[in-house]
Design brief:
Blueprint: H1 37-48, H2 50-55, H3 57-66, H4 71-82, H5 89-96, H6 102-105, E1 107-108, E2 111-112, H7 113-125, H8 129-141, H9 151-158, H10 164-172, E3 177-180, E4 183-185, H11 188-198, H12 203-228, H13 251-274, H14 281-289, H15 291-297, H16 300-316, H17 320-337, H18 340-357, H19 360-376, H20 380-397, H21 400-416, H22 420-437, H23 440-456, H24 460-476, H25 480-496, H26 500-516, H27 520-535
Antiparallel strand pairs: 1-2, 3-4
Helix pairs in contact: 1-3, 1-4, 3-5, 7-8, 8-10, 8-11, 9-12, 12-13, 12-14, 13-14, 13-16, 14-16, 14-17, 16-17, 17-18, 17-19, 18-19, 19-20, 19-21, 20-21, 21-22, 21-23, 22-23, 23-24, 23-25, 24-25, 25-26, 25-27, 26-27
């Protein structure tokens, strides 16, 4: 090829290739990306008629989305509509919505999306030993519903020691994308082709590959949980599922992994729930292992969705233990979302299941959850009763982590009841337990709640340094829920001390975190407190209690 390229200053050659011709000298590379939704819709309208697109724009948007921005696919869709003038756009949209037959639908005369996509795979399959291995791996990479793939996940899926060379060969062949270093993604239409290739393998082989990859996800999630909440008895429920994951160097690294993999973990739970042969325990294990992450970072809708999946599987398999945990965690999610009726209903259901099973730890956890619901409803006597029962069980079981949690949640409630000395003693004990366990978040919660007790006692000057200390630890841990809580209470303390500017700065910073984490309940609270502060009138207002809610 090099000998055929003209070198004169007035010459130019346009070369197209499925592979990136990176070794050619003196060339400018232009990587063609999928069409944007607007561009795809415009192309569809030119082929099928703008009036038909205007008649049902929602169906047209969905149609081009199913084409994945691939110009050939959009062109074929437009040609099929043009040849069927009586068809509404929605008719073809509905036909393409069936993933199993989508590639069959994307064919018109000599234009065929499947045939076009197969070229790259066939070239690999006819290449070197390494290329043939990559072509074979392509079918397995299409199995998961994951949004994207990491090398460790791909290694478990493929049963390989190092999947990166295979992944990179597939990127070079334009069968895989690499949107960021260490991340790989299949275009949706290529995923369908990969699943056709993968269907050549036995069902058992495909199921085993998915199970290996999902087990790694579960084990790594538990590794992250152990980093976020050392000493938590929930870790004992993992059993053999905790083995074989990737370890983390610290809390920040664990949180970063959870954020990066959040969509993939939810997709795996739902795929496991719907796939015969994949262990039924996977959705429940993932739901339990992600509790600490969701409690810290929010994502309430995802939290609820994951536990609803786990609950459905537990009911189907008649696993009362897993059902109890799903009820308990749904209660926590709905409480933090501000839906207290739903929260209480799930927690009571979980309490009944754990009571029938004779599981004292589960009972205590649900009682703690009910206590935080009553606390949020300002029904402090009921909150104190539930939390005292939970604490009594934890002391009887000799469970230091749970004692620290329940003491931490009970202290501020006692402060609201005017039992200040008792509240301060409980919180000091909680802080000491968490320090012994090396649980920095627990320490931060305890010192912050000490500030709340001083706040309730009418001593904002005593509260201020506690909130400041808690905020420093939460920032160290990249814990946004804790930061928002401390900033809200710092705002109230500054306001009580007559420092309106500092109060507004803290409250606006808290509001920014709520908006970033989609915490609608917290955002509404911050807006109310900002308005009150600006008016310098009205009742004090209370921030949401910071609870371990475990």
């Amino acid at each position: 090829m090099r000998q055929l390229l003209p070198a004169g200053p007035g010459c130019a050659v346009l070369v197209t290739s499925r592979r990136v011709l990176a070794t050619l000298d003196g060339v400018r590379h232009l990587h063609l990306r999928p069409l944007a939704p607007g561009e795809s819709t415009t192309l569809l309208g030119r082929l099928a008629g703008a009036d038909r697109i205007a008649a049902d724009p929602a169906a047209a948007r969905k149609l081009v989305g199913l084409c994945g921005g691939l110009p050939l696919a959009v062109r074929i869709a437009g040609a099929r509509l043009a040849a069927r003038p009586t068809w509404p756009v929605r008719t073809l949209t509905d036909r393409l919505a069936n993933a199993r037959s989508r590639l069959d639908e994307l064919r018109a005369d000599d234009l065929d999306v499947r045939a076009s996509l197969q070229v790259g795979h066939r070239l690999l399959a006819a290449g070197s030993v390494e290329e043939r291995a990559a072509a074979s791996a392509f079918g397995l990479l299409g199995l998961p519903d994951a949004a994207d793939l990491s090398p460790p996940f791909a290694e478990r899926l493929l049963g390989a020691v190092d999947a990166t060379p295979v992944l990179e060969l597939l990127v070079d062949a334009q069968l895989l994308e690499s949107p960021a270093p260490g991340r790989y993604r299949l275009h949706e239409l290529l995923r369908l082709l990969a699943r056709e290739v993968g269907a050549e393998r036995s069902v058992d082989e495909r199921t085993a590959a998915l199970t290996r990859a999902m087990r790694w996800q579960v084990a790594t999630a538990w590794s992250g949980y152990a980093m976020l909440r050392p000493g938590d008895p929930r870790l004992d429920t993992a059993g053999a599922w905790a083995a074989g994951g990737t370890a983390f160097n610290g809390v920040r690294q664990a949180l970063e992994w959870f954020e990066t993999e959040r969509a993939n973990l939810l997709a795996s739970a739902e795929q496991a729930a719907a796939t015969d042969g994949v262990p039924d325990e996977i959705p429940g294990q993932l739901a339990r292992a992600l509790f600490a992450f969701f409690h810290i970072r929010g994502h309430r809708a995802d939290w609820i969705r994951l536990n609803q999946t786990a609950l459905a599987v537990a009911r189907r398999t008649k696993d009362a233990y897993a059902e109890g945990f799903a009820h308990r965690d749904l209660g926590a999610a709905y409480e933090l979302q501000g839906d207290f009726d739903q929260a209480a209903g799930y927690l009571r259901a979980g309490l009944q299941l754990f009571t029938e099973a004779g599981d004292d730890t589960g009972q205590a956890s649900c009682l703690n959850g009910l206590g935080t619901v009553y606390d949020s409803l300002q029904r402090y006597d009921q909150a104190a009763d539930c939390l005292s029962q939970a604490l009594s069980i934890a002391r009887r079981l000799g469970d230091p982590h749970s004692q620290g949690v329940y003491l931490n949640n009970l202290g501020p409630v006692l402060g609201q009841l005017g039992r200040y000395a008792e509240a301060l003693r409980y919180l000091a004990e909680s802080g000491a337990i968490f320090a012994e366990l090396g649980n920095r978040r627990g320490q931060a919660a305890a010192v912050t709640n000490l500030g709340e007790v001083h706040e309730a006692a009418g001593s904002p000057g005593e509260a201020l340094p506690r909130f400041t200390a808690g905020l420093a630890i939460f920032r160290e841990l990249a814990d946004e829920a804790g930061q928002e809580h401390c900033l809200t209470h710092l705002g109230l303390a500054h306001r009580d001390l007559g420092r309106v500017d500092q109060a507004l700065e803290c409250l606006r910073s808290a509001l920014a975190i709520c908006e970033r984490t989609d915490d609608q309940r917290g955002a509404a609270r911050c807006l109310r407190l900002i308005r009150e502060t600006l008016r310098q009138a009205g009742p004090h207002g209370k921030g949401q209690r910071l609870s371990a809610n475990e």
